[in-house]
């Protein structure tokens, strides 16, 4: 069969232009061709094509050329070109796992020439070894056949070139001879690589940890040996016996981007032993037992049988909201208010007319008062009105109440953008006449409805954590929303942010800018805050630092600018689970006089969590600019592990009780470095919930 394949190859060679005469020539040829592969065939004039069949034929032609280019790049050990092709085409388009005429796949060539970088790039793209190599003998026989037939072809061409007189045919045969000599050397190198390879050494740093009450996770590194062939897969085995007899299960890992595996469906409280072995073209290497040698699935809640704090809370709140809506559905507050004072009726009816009058529109300038502005952005563009202004509507032009209380109430309303009409019905005119606060909140709801109506969208986004104030008495409440789809809006259009900033004419002095000017100057900072506040932490266990400071009307919490929705933190490890044994140790630590000792003691020096905490505490103290010796007075919060969705969990590091919250005027000797800010506690809670 192999001989017939080589004959077919020779016939094909005779019918088509000759192959490359040398490695350099081959390299030039496939690079020239690959330059053509990058042509976007959709740029051809479709009118010049005969139809769909012709376009499909053209597409397949380019994909075939890309497949040939990938084989050439692997054979010539051109890592950059291999990575370029893998990025440019999908595995299916490259026919990554379809053997060529010699029965080889790109990964076969890479591992048998022992080119580890190219092999790893192919493996991460999903490349497989040829299914024809079912045994060592079959691979050896296949390589021997390739070498023998290539040598035979070289001898035949050599004889023809020597015996024929110089002519055009002779020149072609010389080119073929050089190409076959190069391929003969390639096959010999592949055969030698296979013969000299040995089975891989055992994986290194095989670490076992408890992932949950029914699973354990094993992580490992590649074998240390550099003289062996490239490892293409790993095998994880587990058992309840240290001799691994009998085996309870095994799993083969052939996706090598992340070397870890979670064994699920285990029994809580049972010890499981785990070992890992590596595989290359010579077979499986010796297994490496994990460290520690066994793990017992468990969770910290099993220590005292505690249920999750938030279990059922979301459902209970939804049910409560439904009950409130039902009570208000036929409430007297929904009836028209006929007996209200004339002055108040006139004031409110004016607001209602302003809302529903056809002439309702965005404001161009600010007078002294409270306003709402909505910033919608997409990439580097921002939504503006037809007058090139950021959308602004008035809330109250006679605002004089305590701002922080109203502002925090507004942030809670932002969680119910779809319920504004219902909230307006609940906060009736008669109720709003009772106090300045209720009146202002009713006007806030009116302004939200007006903004929603003018933009044609209900979701106005996330409230920025502080209003924008100027010296003229203007206050702007800012909402931010990123638009990721081609969404249409009414009465507005997209413009580049830089163009808006350079073209807008300021109506204020640099010494006393208006709130709108201040907003425009700082818009990039606000957009950056909004984007960072929506980022999520990668799965793992984290150590968080809780630091509060109080003012007259609010409590603020210290957060990092790069993730303002999370406390100051460092990552302890990738496994978010705290086992029952680890939690027992933490409880013991909490009962000690020095819950965070500076140096490990003999009985805890071998505790992995203790060692991880030591590193994390040092890193966290450096991050928040607190001398390490001060950490001896800090303590770990031992009431619970803060769990966020099962993939992220936190242990909290607390300052001494007197220093958790800094009072107004109290001196804080340790000021964090740049890169931190303080958020109102209610704003932080909303961001953390999202």
From TrEMBL:
GO terms for biological process: establishment of mitotic spindle orientation; regulation of establishment of bipolar cell polarity. SMART domains: FN3 (SM00060). Residues 1-26 are annotated as: Disordered. GO terms for cellular component: spindle. The lineage of its organism: Eukaryota, Metazoa, Chordata, Craniata, Vertebrata. This is Ankyrin repeat and fibronectin type-III domain-containing protein 1. Residues 202-299 form the Fibronectin type-III domain. InterPro entries: ANKFN1, Ankyrin_rpt-contain_sf, FN3_dom, FN3_sf, Ig-like_fold. SUPFAM superfamilies: Ankyrin repeat, Fibronectin type III. CDD domains: FN3. It comes from the Eukaryota. It comes from Mesitornis unicolor.
């Amino acid at each position: 069969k192999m001989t017939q394949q080589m004959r077919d190859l020779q016939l094909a060679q005779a019918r088509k232009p000759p192959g490359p005469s040398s490695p350099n020539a081959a390299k030039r040829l496939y690079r020239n061709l690959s330059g053509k592969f990058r042509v976007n065939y959709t740029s051809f004039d479709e009118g010049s094509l005969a139809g769909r069949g012709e376009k499909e034929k053209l597409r397949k032609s380019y994909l075939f050329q890309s497949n040939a280019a990938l084989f050439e790049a692997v054979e010539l050990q051109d890592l950059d070109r291999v990575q370029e092709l893998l990025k440019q085409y999908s595995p299916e388009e490259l026919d990554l796992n379809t053997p060529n005429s010699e029965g080889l796949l790109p990964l076969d060539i890479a591992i048998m020439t022992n080119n580890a970088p190219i092999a790893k790039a192919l493996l991460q793209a999903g490349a497989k070894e040829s299914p024809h190599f079912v045994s060592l003998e079959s691979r050896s026989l296949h390589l021997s056949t390739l070498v023998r037939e290539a040598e035979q072809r070289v001898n035949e061409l050599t004889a023809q070139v020597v015996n024929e007189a110089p002519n055009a045919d002779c020149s072609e045969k010389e080119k073929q001879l050089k190409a076959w000599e190069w391929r003969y050397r390639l096959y010999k190198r592949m055969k030698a690589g296979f013969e000299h390879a040995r089975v891989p050494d055992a994986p290194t740093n095989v670490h076992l940890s408890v992932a949950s009450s029914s699973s354990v996770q094993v992580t490992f590194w590649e074998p240390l040996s550099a003289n062996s062939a490239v490892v293409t897969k790993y095998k994880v085995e587990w058992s309840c016996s240290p001799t691994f007899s009998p085996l309870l299960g095994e799993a083969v890992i052939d996706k090598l981007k992340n070397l870890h595996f979670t064994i699920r469906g285990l029994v809580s409280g049972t010890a499981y032993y785990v070992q890992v072995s590596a595989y290359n073209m010579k077979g499986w290497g010796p297994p490496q037992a994990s460290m520690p040698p066994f793990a017992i699935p468990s969770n910290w809640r099993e220590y005292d049988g505690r249920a999750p704090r938030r279990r059922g809370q979301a459902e209970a709140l939804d049910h409560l909201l439904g009950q409130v809506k039902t009570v208000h559905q036929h409430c007297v507050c929904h009836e028209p208010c006929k007996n209200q004072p004339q002055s108040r009726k006139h004031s409110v009816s004016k607001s209602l007319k302003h809302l529903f009058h056809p002439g309702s529109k965005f404001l161009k300038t600010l007078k002294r008062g409270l306003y709402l502005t909505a910033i919608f952005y997409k990439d580097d563009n921002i939504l503006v009105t037809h007058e090139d202004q950021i959308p602004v509507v008035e809330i109250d032009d006679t605002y004089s109440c305590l701002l922080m209380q109203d502002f925090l109430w507004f942030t809670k309303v932002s969680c119910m953008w779809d319920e504004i009409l219902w909230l307006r019905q609940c906060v009736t005119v008669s109720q709003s006449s009772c106090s300045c606060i209720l009146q202002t909140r009713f006007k806030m709801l009116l302004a939200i409805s007006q903004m929603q109506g003018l933009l044609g969208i209900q979701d106005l986004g996330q409230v920025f954590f502080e209003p924008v104030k100027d010296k003229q008495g203007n206050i702007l409440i800012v909402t931010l929303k990123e638009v990721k789809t081609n969404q249409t809006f009414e009465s507005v259009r997209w413009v580049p942010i830089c163009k808006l900033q350079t073209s807008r004419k300021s109506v204020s002095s640099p010494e006393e800018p208006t709130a709108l000017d201040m907003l425009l100057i700082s818009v990039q900072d606000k957009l950056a805050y909004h984007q960072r506040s929506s980022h999520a932490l990668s799965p793992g266990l984290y150590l968080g630092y809780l630091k509060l400071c109080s003012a007259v009307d609010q409590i603020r919490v210290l957060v990092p600018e790069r993730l303002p929705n999370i406390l100051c933190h460092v990552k302890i490890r990738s496994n978010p689970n705290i086992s029952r044994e680890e939690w027992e140790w933490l409880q013991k630590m909490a009962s000690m006089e020095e819950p965070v000792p500076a140096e490990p003691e003999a009985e805890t020096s071998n505790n992995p969590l203790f060692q991880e905490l030591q590193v994390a505490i040092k890193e966290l103290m450096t991050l928040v600019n607190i001398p390490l010796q001060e950490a001896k007075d800090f303590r770990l919060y031992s009431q619970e592990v803060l769990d966020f969705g099962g993939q992220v969990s936190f242990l909290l590091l607390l300052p001494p009780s007197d220093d958790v919250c800094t009072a107004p005027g109290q001196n804080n000797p340790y000021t964090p470095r740049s890169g931190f800010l303080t958020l109102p506690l209610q704003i932080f809670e909303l961001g953390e919930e999202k």
